[in-house]
Design a protein that fits this description.
The complex is a heterodimer of chains A (314) and B (344).
Chain A (H helix, E strand, L loop, with lengths): L1 H27 L13 H10 L6 H15 L14 H36 L4 H15 L2 H15 L12 H32 L2 H8 L4 H39 L4 H10 L3 H29 L1 H4 L8
Helix pairs in contact in A: 1-3, 1-11, 4-5, 4-7, 4-9, 5-7, 6-7, 6-9, 7-9, 8-9, 9-10, 9-11, 10-11
Chain B lengths: L2 E14 L2 E14 L3 E5 L6 H9 L6 E10 L2 E2 L5 H7 L4 E4 L13 H12 L4 H14 L5 H4 L9 H13 L5 E5 L7 H18 L2 E6 L11 E6 L2 E7 H7 L3 H8 L49 E4 L2 E3 L15 H12 L3
Helix pairs in contact in B: 3-4, 3-6, 4-6, 6-7
Classes of the chains: A mainly alpha (314), B alpha/beta (344).
Bound molecules: adenosine-5'-triphosphate and magnesium ion.
Chain lengths: 314, 344
Amino acid sequence: MTKYILKRLGMAALTLLVILFILFLLLEFMPGSPFNDEKLSPDQIANLNALYGLDKSPVIRFLIFVKNVVLHQDFGISFVIKKNAAISDMISSRIGITIKIGLQAILIGTVTGIVLGVIAGIKRNTIFDTLTTIIAVLGVSIPSYVFALGLSYYFGYKMRLFPITFDIDDTVRSMVLPSIALSMFVIAQTARFMRMELIDIFKSDYIQLAESKGLSNLKVIIRHALRNAMIPVITVLGPLLVGLMTGSLVVEKIFGIPGIGSLLIQAIQVNDFNVVIAIAFIYSFLYIFVNLLVDLLYGIIDPRIRVQGGGTNA
Amino acid sequence: MKKILRVNDLRISFKTNSGNVQAIRGVSFNLFKGETLAIVGESGSGKSVTTKAIMGMLANNATVEQGSILFDGNDILKLTKRELTKIRGSRISMIFQDPMTSLNPTMTIGKQIMESMLEHRKMKRSDAKIKVIELLDLVGIESPSKRFKSYPHQLSGGMRQRVVIAIALASEPDILIADEPTTALDVTIQSQILELIKELQMKLKISIIFITHDLGVVANMADRVAVMYAGKIVEYGLSDEIYYDSKHPYTWGLLASVPDMSTKVDMLYSIPGTTPNLISPPVGDAFAYRSEHTLKIDFEEQPPFFKVSDTHYVASWLLHEYAPKIEMPEHLQRRIKLMLSEEY
Ligand SMILES: Nc1ncnc2c1ncn2[C@@H]1O[C@H](COP(=O)(O)OP(=O)(O)OP(=O)(O)O)[C@@H](O)[C@H]1O
Ligand SMILES: [Mg+2]
């Protein structure tokens, strides 16, 4: 098992490096420059480029970046947004809120999704099932910014239940609407998956056997159906995270949340290369890390995967 | 002989998109205490539906049109859900066909066996655990205390079926229903499992309903045999009466299709024709279209049961006093004698 985890960690690190390298190459083709003040002469721009190391080839810059991150946890400095400020400081003051909202969205999303999916799976072809299907279709097909706008209009502007834009003095209530907006996609996906899985599982022989033991329906569902239905649901958590990340960019922007998503958008708009790279790096890191976690979790829930290599066969 | 279960004129239909499937069309039989009753018939004859009715586990689209299933003074078909769960898995339990899919893949086998003990017998966990290990030993699983924590995928098919049997026995039931418990296993494992079931019955004195489509499988274990065709029992008798002196052409067909050691696989006999459509079943004898010995009346009226002996009944017009006398074909008799002497 340890060997397996080490191997996976190695692969994850390698993937991260490749993504980063591609990022450096791509930025080379991005139009514009961080120094586009009209008052600057070409000479001055060349000086600035040399000062910040932008005259070097992307490969060299990639290597320097990796070295600084690995040795000093240093992501370089910002050119534009906050002149000469350390990006690691900018990020560490903003990443907390992004992660908090993301986690809340996942939590709200999976719990609600599982509950809805279970109800739909059990009460098949009833009004509950239809409602869940409608929610699932809407949740998948409507982008999260539409939910964000809708929620902020209705609950923020009309009912005045929650702040419309982020309020430093009331962070808890400020995070409610963004978390819900982001969670819609997660709700939809988990509900759909859970329902499908349960319907399959209810047809399976081992559920019949569990019923034949004289267990109540509730016990059959909780002990035998749910755990087995969870396995595939966990596998979609990874891909869901992508939706969550892209969603967070827009949702942070709409609610004016001081997280790294809105920072990334700002950085892209003003060509603050280092900030773009640093945040893209962090997003990739989170994504790879969570996927790794999901795989390991999968092994814990599904014994058929857990004992691979160590199993005995009779 | 004490009757432990009595099925009385059972009629069950299923609603489907293409119409009402009349799966069980008047089935009656008795199960006697400590005996094994084999229910034999081709695919689709209604064997599983009958057992599911006894377990109170009919599909949602099923309707019981008529009949009763008497167990312990109660009609199982009239029990509430709660009353049913008290009988199911505790007094009547079931072994399923495919051991590869009938165990929960994410629960240890120990827990799966323990579950019905804790449910029905209100045992302490620690006592139940000891009992599980005894049971695993009883069904022939080696180093049972180590196996307690195994997951199904760590066991072979034969071992899994032993676990399924242990689950069925966990609550010390009065009746064990085995629905084709060996069909999914290969031949050597199959005979081991049959041996085990036989042994267990002798030790535990339970009554068994054994479902199969192969009369050869139950030759050495059934006390009585009920032959089913198209939702009806067509012949019912003591084991010897069925194997040596059966009267229904369908039973002959089933006997002829039992594979034996000398038959090459490609020479296996199968009854010509197919089973009738049960959405609009034939007015007369459902087997008439496939039989070599069809009478005119077979197409007009369903045959009643003719009594051959106190224990042997046959639903075929061939038994009517005016019908031509037709006996079990001689070559078949010879073959059966050979087969049964072969130490199956
Ligand atoms: N839920 C259901 N809905 C509709 N028809 C059904 C249902 N269950 C069983 N049937 C029908 O009832 C008839 C009897 O089925 P049953 O499963 O009892 O056959 P069987 O004798 O057990 O056959 P096999 O040897 O293939 O297991 C078949 O025609 C089958 O199609
Ligand atoms: Mg069947």
